[in-house]
Sequence to fold (218 residues):
Amino acid sequence: MVKVFDEELGGLKADFMKLGALVGEAISSSGQSFINHDVDSAQQVITNDPKINDLQIELEKRSFEIMALYQPVTTDLREVVSILKGVTDLERAGDHARNVARSTVKIKGQKRLPEVEEIIATMANEVSKEFNECISAYARADQVSAKETVKIFADEINDLYNGAASPSYQAMAAHPDIVNSGVLYINVAKDLSRISDYSTNICEWTIYLATGEIVELS
Fold:
């Protein structure tokens, strides 16, 4: 019975990390597609999104089954609970990556603001780095790294959002022909900011996994 439980729990964590990898790839690819005006790459992110949704549902189902069948305690229970909670954050981060990809398709042929795109490029790269650091911290149950990652990136991402949104609003007010692009720039910045928020949540679940404490890092 113990061996079967260990195998089930190990498989659950492995597939959670697989989901993290799929979402990480979606975040990176959607950001790069927007930066490079690559509609084909963006469309691939959109096409792959159901895989993320399906794996999230499967992991939730298996988490509930493990808790019902084996009634894990202490460290094992924290592992299952952190995965059950974390899959929702991963799926939502994937949704926002899909939204960035959709914006890449929508902005094709619209008037551009190179100075805003430069800020969004930096923001996309930093958000991707943050997500990868958070997933890595979870894999190691490294609460120190989780706390440091949020500390390093949170304010920077917020500043980058403001740096992209402010000139977009100003450009829309001054030039009506830029409104469509301006709205999309703001939407992309918001989506990237939300991905950062969900990365923070993963770091919070990492701390719970390591210590049993529920904390707020934002």
Q: What stands out?
A: The radius of gyration is 19 Å. The mean pLDDT is 96. The chain has one domain: 2-211. DSSP finds six helices and no strands in the chain.
